[in-house]
What does this fold into?
Amino acid sequence: MASRRRMLLKVIILGDSGVGKTSLMNQYVNRKFSNQYKATIGADFLTKEVQFEDRLFTMQIWDTAGQERFQSLGVAFYRGADCCVLVYDVNVTKSFENLNNWREEFLIQASPSDPENFPFVVLGNKIDIDGGNSRVVSEKKARAWCASKGDIPYFETSAKEGFNVEVAFQCIAKNALKNEPEEELYLPDTIDVTGGGQQQRSTGCEC
Amino acid sequence: MVKKRVPDWLNSSLWSPPPPPPQDPVSRYDSKSATAAAASTTSSTAAAAKDVVVLDPPIPVPPPSLIRPEPPKAELRDPLSSSDENNNGSSAAASNSSSAEDMSRRAQLSQELSKKVLNMSELRRLASQGIPDGAGIRSTVWKLLLGYLPSDRGLWSSELSKKRFQYKHFKGELLMNPSEITRKLESSTSLGNDESKSESKGLLSRSEITHGEHPLSLGKTSVWNQFFQDTEIIEQIDRDVKRTHPDMHFFSGDSLFAKSNQDALRNILIVFAKLNPGIRYVQGMNEILAPLFYVFRTDPNEENVAYAEADTFFCFVELLSGFRDHFCQQLDNSVVGIRSTITKLSQLLKEHDEELWRHLEVTTKVNPQFYAFRWITLLLTQEFNFADSLHIWDTLLSDPEGPQETLLRVCCAMLVLVRRRLLAGDFTSNLKLLQNYPPTNISHLLYVANKLRAHSAG
It folds into this structure.
């Protein structure tokens, strides 16, 4: 039978307080937006079944607290992550500037085996606000930063309007999947699931 | 002098259970302004009523259960009626519950509260079973349990006016923006301009600035330097205050009533953050503050309502004194930090239900930090509806040893109560269950928690 390890994709969402991490997760998983979310304390957890290239996976999404104080508690949440989503608010410069801290902190705490190639995805959220007029971080600037960090995929999203959220998470799933094979080496007998295992491995090398 | 406004003693002695020595703490706090302040104690205390909480004609406060949009939990319980009414069913035997008994507890509490010198252990015993809503009993009892009111009723009035004045003073000093501070320095200050201070709290206004105290001054002593450091934390407080109980009209929405309540939460958190530079503001403090302020602000006594913000501040400080280490990042890995407390919960579970402990932590690998971090740091305010949280707090605050041991027993009881579902569950279903704890008969939960105490002792 399929091993559970293989079928599970663990995704962590990081970013400053108030950038919309909880909203993005709920928009993706439940297709709902609410402006009544409370501040996340510790970490919240949702799952979603995703299909990718004819295979079903469970995506386990961890929505974390944004305040710096909680970073040192992250290790329990970060460990074993297959992809890390970094979120900032395009209307708040500081939240963009802090992406670097979040990325570095994640790499320190999660200590992935190949930090150079660990998959990140960056989301610039809240592009709907004020019709884009209050925006302070340009797409160009954000893309430049992503490029400088090893071509991190970048999406501009609106959790409120559901804009680009699905597409972004499909990319997140794909990248999380690329990260999987390495850990799968310990479970060679899982290849018979759907016959897609080898194929996955080859896409994994494209990055 | 202006920079070093907060002496160290404020960060220690005042916050620990024995209240500060009775000699006027204000004069130790700031000799210059306090002398002037002390002179006008009575008049400015009266004036404080006006600027602490903006009070329009009292607005009737709907019970939380009536305004919560989620019916399943909320309909079960009307916080202003007897709290155990719905307590029928399987656990009725366990939790000694009936309206009659509730009435008699109310009568007993009222009687206890009318004594000249209160018997605190009797009060704790009664309160631990749940304080009936209404009539302001909970408001008074919580203040007693938190040591804000002394057990001698004769001292209440002087103690309250002292504390309320002290808070007004904190606000005057700490909520001023730099323009106001420099203006105050210039006009070498009398207390006469109190009104202007409180009116424009936090907002930069244009004014003449001299003495090198201008926004571009990089001097370490510049009040502006401090101001910019504070701005970030105040923005965080603002964000979270707006997100406090977004489902309750008391805290949320566009009404003047909700706005004034949000202002009060904001003021308290800012004053606390400035007086406690080692902790400042940590997300979640707003959630611990909210029940206190709600209870004090809905007291039928008008004077208590007028000073709800000040009373809440001191009770918040007192409550947090037992838990502040959980909010301190530097202590995360120490024996007093949050990790250590979560480990205690794990040990407690292992002691009482090893099978469940093993299934959770070994078999399904649910790290207790994944669910218990929020349970413990927020004192269970997010896991149940608001009225139920108040009931749980009655019990937490009644423990003479402080709330933590009781809190851990309640958390452990929460696990034990859903053990069958947990034992049948895997990682995902168990974590979802514990992060979204199902509506529960609170009296029964507290009964089970109390049984754990007996079990440990015996």
User: Anything to note?
Assistant: Confidence is low (pLDDT under 50) at residues 1-5, 182-207 of chain A.
